[in-house]
Amino acid sequence: MKLIMSLLLIFSFNLFAQDVENGKKLYAKCTSCHGNDGMGKKSQKAPMLAGQHDWYLESQINAIKNKKRVSGSASKMYPFVKALTDNEIKDLSAYIATLPVVLN
Ligand code: HEC
How far is the CA of 28 from the centre of ligand 1 (A)? Predict the structure, then answer.
C-alpha cells in the first residue's frame, strides 16, 4: 500500500511539475531583449526578470499575450509571446525564476 501511495505521489507530482529544461529552451526567444542572464537591456527598454517570482512572471506574460498589458514597450514583446501555450508560459516562468540577480 505504501508503495502504491508513493507511486501515485510521484506520478501526480510529475503531472503538475513545471518543466524547467523546456523553459530554458523557450527562453532563447527572449534573450535578445531580456539578456541570457535575465538582467534586462536598457537599450531595449526590457526590464530585468531575474529574481522575480514565477507567479508574477506568468501573470505578466499572459497579460502581454492577451493585450491586457499595453504599457510602455509591451507591444514589442507581443509577437514573441502571442503563440505560447499556458504550459509553455508556466515552464518559462519556472525557468526564469531560477535566474539569480547578478548586479555588476
Ligand atoms: C522585442 C523585445 C522583447 C522580447 C523578445 C521579449 N520581451 Fe519581455 N518585455 C519587453 C519589454 C520592452 C517589456 C516591458 C514592457 C513595458 O514597458 O511595460 C517586457 C516585459 C516583460 C515581462 C514583465 C516584467 C515585469 O517586471 O513586469 C516579462 C515577465 C517578460 N517580458 C517576459 C518575456 C519572455 C518570457 C519573453 C520570451 C518568450 C520575452 N519577454 C521576450 C521586451 C521583450
Answer: 13
Q: Which amino acid is at 101?
A: V
For 81-102, how does the pLDDT look when each residue is reduced to its tens digit (9 = 90+)? 999 999 999 999 999 999 999 9
C-beta of residue 99 within 8 angstroms of C-beta of residue 49: yes
Which residue has the least CA distance to atom 32 on ligand 1?
61
- In the block, cell 514589442 appears at 76
CB count in 10 Å sphere of residue 57: 20
On the 0-12 / 13-18 / 19+ scale of CB atoms within 10 A, 20 is middle
